[in-house]
Amino acid sequence: MSGRPDGLAGQWTGVVLAGGRSRRFGGVDKTRLPLGGRTLLARALDTLAPLTTTCLVVGGAPVAGIPQVPDEAPGHGPLGGLLTALDAIATPHALILAVDLPFIPGSLLGEVQRAGAEAAVALVRAPDGRMPLCLAIRRDVAPVLREWFERGTRRVRALEDVAPCAWVAAEAVAMTGALWNINDPLTYARALEMAEHDCPAC
Hey, how many other C-beta atoms are within 10 angstroms of the C-beta on 197? Predict the structure, then answer.
């Protein structure tokens, strides 16, 4: 099941975290990598759009026509991008997705959004214990999160200690590679194989 939680239309901004230095890609801008007929950035925006009333990109190279803000703490991990997003949005909630998770299904994002409607933060837990960068967060978490960040906290998992947190289990996600993270040329090559028949124009 996907779509906005009942009665919450207008309360969510979709945020794509597109920063990072792509060291393992030799500095290549991952947001522009093609996959299944779309760039990684376009795929992330397309996944968020049905669940949110507006979208915002944090970091990455500017793309015409897409609202975008620079990461206020480049080089300090995704928490810096998350704080940038919370400062920039006008809605009470943000649905966050990393640009390098191209196969995240809308159904899983919908579960995260519904959990986030009832908690300050909602995070995804993969079957192997990993925590993909896909989460829901309330804008009013920003002050305490900034305090932790300024004390040196950089791990996204620390969010469960910052605010009341709900966990969404990803075991039920049947889609092959749903949590696949494109973080180097090898994983990108495998993703190209997976996306061979994933082109909307085909």
Answer: 7
